[in-house]
């Protein structure tokens, strides 16, 4: 295990508001990591910074064994370097079937299958990608009629088809049934056996099932890190989550 992503002393302000404040964070390869924290803590902004959507004001973001500086790379270069991102809302091609969506993802430039693609059985490859996210029986179904949870899985499947080294997933459980949530945790745990996966999530039951190291983000910096039990026992984390603003040592 070695650090795949190393964020050091990163700050980012919007106008005068410091959304990310001297944030340091690193994730290994392979590793599954959860990021939790109240609304507005800077979780999505963190992903915007790593994927090159926005640039930090200060600090560095290094990636891979060559310690490439992501702050100097374009969004497209960062994606090609193996960083995949799942946004909160599913963005699949609704008019295309599950199989067609996955086939497009498999043929994308980043995919290790792209070169071999004409030589392998495209249908078999797409079915295998579908099986990773439990959609092997839905190959011919237009993505538009899938349930919300299934659309999320399809998008995760499309990202995994491109074999990212680092997968960033923003609030996948929102709007899912509890059965879908449980299935989603299994997929992410499996995916993280061979890559780094960083999951932002509010649902504590979901995070508990991920059974991984947790980073608590608050006001743009890492407030606590460790197992879920460890961070939940931290008085500073309790303050943030329960909104208890006064100390109780009187
Ligand atoms: P979280 O995902 O933890 O709920 P965000 O990262 O979305 O929080 O937002 C952190 C803070 O930064 C919020 O106060 C938000 O309004 C602000 N923010 C995020 N992106 C922008 C932007 N592009 N312009 C202005 N303010 C932003
Ligand atoms: Mg967010």
From TrEMBL:
Gene3D superfamilies: P-loop containing nucleotide triphosphate hydrolases (3.40.50.300). Residues 5-244 form the ABC transporter domain. It comes from the Bacteria. Transmembrane segments: none annotated. GO terms for molecular function: ATP binding; ATP hydrolysis activity. Coiled coil: none annotated. This is Urea transport system ATP-binding protein. Keywords: ATP-binding, Nucleotide-binding, Transport. It comes from Jannaschia faecimaris. Pfam families: ABC_tran, BCA_ABC_TP_C. One of its GO terms (cellular component) is plasma membrane. InterPro entries: AAA+_ATPase, ABC_AA/LPS_Transport, ABC_transporter-like_ATP-bd, ABC_transptr_urea_ATP-bd_UrtD, BCA_ABC_TP_C, P-loop_NTPase. The keyword Transcription does not apply.
